[in-house]
Design a protein that fits this description.
The chain is an alpha+beta fold and 629 residues long. The chain is built from 21 helices and 22 strands. The longest helix has 24 residues.
């Protein structure tokens, strides 16, 4: 096959542009990334060879570093699974993971911030171009005869061609750029491997001819033992940190490290990390965790949804079982009861560690919550067994407190006579605080939780109560705060005021005018400042959820009709009641529609007929200006 010249995917070209800018002060991590990829390739072949032993020649798996100072090249080679032509194009020419383009658009140009995003794409290979002006990859996939060569200078294109006599595995050769000769010095390479890759569980060796052509044996540079089976007392914070970088393909540091061994009916070792930064693809539809499953130190898969629940998909790390069968298929994993027990044990342990962190360091936990809180809310909806534990981990903004509050905090502050935990959902905290539905709650000093995550609309109906207190939406009809005294006497007098005479006649006129647009019109128990507001009937879909579904074209049928509540103590409502009593109803129908549209706008809804709204508004302004004159 003749040489092909292909263009990089747009996202790859953009990533290559920022790699040099972002990693200029961390150049040495290129070696960590390439060794990590080589280690993964060996793990994959070791597992594949369990069912297809002909794929492996029986040689010990290792990563080999070779330096040619005369040619100014450094080669990182492995005898792992290897790649064919299509693998090279897919893995080195494109970024296949969904959401990448959107994440790239969030790059700021700030090298320090952008560096944290590199590696979250799972493409640490491109860090090679920080130190090399040309990269050559020669690879042969296990079980195939043909080898392939991939070459690029990282400037928008690459070539792919067949390679003769390529050994199984992958060899990445870096042609060093000017000024990067330090990475051709064996002493420098030894230091980098010891610093970043000592935890790799297979040998990383320096070729015997790497230094001055001296003969001898290859030199092993790392301990080559699985970190997760070692005693915690033998592992430093730096060891943990670098293993996290390896297993998570991440550049941030772990926020929390969880390392333990379960013994008893089932035995398994766990080394898990909670990232500091939110991975870019956390909310992509695939919803996959990135925890690797090992069986007796042999890598099995990084795609076992049964290992960790989807709502803990922020976890990175390893679970190593002593009891699962080594030759375990994907279908067997789905049905294996031992894996279900491991999942249960891991989930309980992780949630317990999060609870301890929340209690011991609430400020740090707030940082975690801001990055990963919506996922725990998913767990409240999906995992009934852990619901009570998860509810204690939730944090909220509220109408009466600064910072984050817990449900326990809320219950402890409930007002005398208050019977429920109240919340309101929307897209923006500040807009929610100004919602007219909250006026009665403010008047009585009742705290309301402000929910702005889309998942809030799903977990709240699933939770009937907390600490014996039901959860209720503040935007539903029937909220009764009459048992809660207003915060001052003036507001108490206002609450007792029944409003203008003739309110019943006005409501009847509003119902007649709006019968096709609202389900009902009734007096509000809670409005204190606004003339009207919309609320959902007890059995109808919540208003915020309906808006979300409508935005995503997932609302079957038409929108639900809402209930229009009016404030009988508001001057506008009083004046309208007077007009009805006087028999002057010519303006009432138009003003009823105008008030309804105003309520829709406050809720963030679109006005169904903007032209009619504009006409009614202009008419009302004209009448007002005429009277003023």
């Amino acid at each position: 096959m003749s040489e092909e010249k292909l263009e990089f995917q747009a996202e790859v070209s953009r990533l290559l542009e920022i790699v040099a800018k972002s990693l200029y002060s961390h150049e040495e991590v290129f070696l960590r990334e390439l060794i990590s990829n080589a280690s993964d390739a060996c793990d994959r072949l070791r597992y594949a060879a369990l069912t297809r032993p002909e794929l492996s020649d029986g040689d010990a798996y290792k990563v080999r570093l070779s330096v040619d100072k005369a040619a100014r090249t450094l080669t990182i080679a492995d005898n792992g699974i290897g790649m064919n032509r299509d693998d090279l194009v897919e893995n080195l020419g494109t970024i296949a993971r969904s959401g990448t383009l959107a994440a790239m658009q969030n790059l700021t140009g700030d090298a320090k911030k952008d560096m944290a995003l590199i590696g979250q794409f799972g493409v640490g290979f491109y860090s090679a171009f920080v130190v090399a002006d040309r990269v050559e990859v020669v690879s042969r996939k296990a079980g195939e005869d043909a080898g392939w060569r991939w070459i690029s200078d990282g400037k928008g294109a690459y070539t792919v061609a067949e390679a003769d006599d390529a050994p199984r595995g992958t060899a990445v050769t870096l042609h060093m750029a000017e000024g990067k000769d330090e990475f051709l010095e064996p002493a420098r390479l030894r230091h980098i491997v010891k610093t970043y890759s000592d935890h790799i569980a297979l040998p990383i060796v320096m070729a015997a001819d790497a230094e001055d052509g001296k003969a001898g044996e290859d030199e092993t540079l790392n301990r080559a033992s699985a970190l997760w089976v070692r005693s915690k007392s033998d592992i430093s914070d730096d060891d943990y940190k670098e293993f996290y970088h390896h297993v998570g393909h991440a550049f941030d540091d772990p926020w929390l490290t969880i390392h333990y061994r379960a013994e008893g009916t089932l035995e398994y070792a766990v080394l898990l990390f909670v990232p500091t930064m939110q991975p870019f693809d956390l909310f992509q539809p695939e919803r996959k965790h990135r925890v690797k499953l090992y069986v007796r130190r042999v890598f099995v898969t990084d795609d076992a949804p049964e290992l960790v629940p989807a709502y803990l998909r922020f976890l990175r790390g390893v679970v190593d079982s002593e009891d699962l069968p080594l030759n375990v298929s994907r279908e067997m994993l789905q049905r294996n009861p031992m894996l279900a027990k491991i999942r249960q044990g891991v989930t309980r342990r992780v949630l317990g560690e999060l609870q301890r962190k929340a209690e011991d360091d609430p400020e740090s936990y707030a940082t975690f919550w801001e990055a990963f809180g919506p996922l725990l809310k998913e767990g409240v909806y999906e995992d009934a067994d852990q619901r009570e534990t998860l509810l204690k981990l939730l944090r909220f903004r509220s109408t009466t407190q600064e910072g984050w509050v817990t449900l326990d905090d809320y219950v402890a502050r409930m007002r005398e006579g208050q019977e429920a935990i109240y919340y309101i959902g929307g897209e923006d905290i500040e807009a929610l605080k100004k919602s007219p539905q909250l006026e009665g709650f403010k008047a009585r000093g009742v705290e309301v939780l402000l929910l702005t995550d889309p998942v809030d609309e799903f977990w709240t109906p699933a939770v009937r109560d907390y600490a014996g207190k039901p959860l209720k939406s503040a935007t539903r009809v029937g909220t009764d705060l009459s048992g809660v005294p207003p915060v001052d006497e003036a507001e108490a007098d206002a609450a007792d005021d029944k409003g203008a005479d003739g309110i019943d006649a006005l409501i009847a006129r509003f119902k007649s005018a709006l019968e096709d647009e609202v389900k009902d019109v009734r007096v509000s128990r809670l409005l204190t400042e606004s003339p009207v507001c919309l609320v959902a009937d007890e059995n109808d879909i919540d208003m915020h959820l309906e808006r979300l579904l409508k935005q995503h074209n997932q609302l079957g049928g038409g929108a639900s009709k809402r209930i229009l509540e009016i404030n009988p103590r508001h001057p506008v409502i009083g004046r309208l009641a007077d007009l009805v009593q006087q028999g002057d109803e010519t303006q009432v129908a138009d003003l009823a529609h105008l008030l309804l549209d105003q309520a829709r706008i406050v809720e963030g809804d679109q006005v169904p007929d903007p032209s009619a709204f504009s006409r009614r508004l202009m008419s009302a302004l004209q009448r007002g200006l005429t009277l003023a004159a």
